[in-house]
Amino acid sequence: MRLDGKVAIVTGAGSGFGRGIADAFAREGARLVVADIDGMRARDVADGIGPHAIAVAADVSQGADVTAMVGAAVRAFGGLDILVNNAGITHKNQSLMTVSEDEFDRIYAVNVKSIYLTTLAAVPELEKRGGGSIVNTASTAGVRPRPGLTWYNGSKGAVIALTKSMAAELAPLNIRVNAINPVIGETGLLEEFMGLPDTAENRARFIAGIPLGRMSTPADIANAAVFLADPASSFITGLAIEVDGGRCI
After folding, report:
1. Residue of 152, 160, 220, 228 with catalytic role
2. Which of 58, 83, 99, 107: CA 20 to 30 A from 11?
3. Beta strands of 123-249 (E only): which ranges?
4. How sure is the predictor about 189, in pLDDT bands with cuts at 50, 70 and 90?
5. Which has the closest alpha carbon to 231: 11, 81, 127?
6. Taking the domain 7-188+217-240, which CATH number applies?
7. 116 is known as an active-site residue
8. Is there a contact between 177 and 167 (Cβ–Cβ < 8 Å)?
């Protein structure tokens, strides 16, 4: 198993991409902290995985919650090897002029500030293990932004820039930092991204821009996350890998 004996935290793991990543890590032998703002969802996922997973309710925009999350991993499993910063939110696809200040602040708190907070809490624990892997969920929106999601696009552009800078700065500690850029996917945020009801016709409008002819799935993103967490990718850092069916070509 590719992650046998590794200890991982996956944020936003109660559903969507995060749940897919948590399930894939468990199949590869990792011991897991399943973290989500919705504690019931986190427990459902952890229970489904079994005794090598624990659930933690955490708002990743809050420093106390993040510190407690990392502490839970150390207490339960003795350390930390992998951190997946997957939790994220968006605003509904709309004019950049109509997104409220509260929405803007929350997007940047969850999508960007959370990486600052998890870095402060997790890096000392990764260093104790002689290094590790951090994987950030960014987006194709940070590479090829489109109208209607401007402020969300900016937050994901920040994630990509942070990933590269973190990779350069943390390399002497043998801590690798990479990102995954999904294209629009089959998750609970789909209608927010589309700004339209989830119908076959509306899906077709978005799929038309994806050369491989479909949206991303949790399994697609999980496969990339396993690769980036796997010691087999030990010489890869600072990469933002596009898992997008060719969207960014």
Report:
1. 152
2. 99
3. 132-137, 175-182, 240-243
4. low
5. 81
6. 3.40.50.720
7. no
8. yes
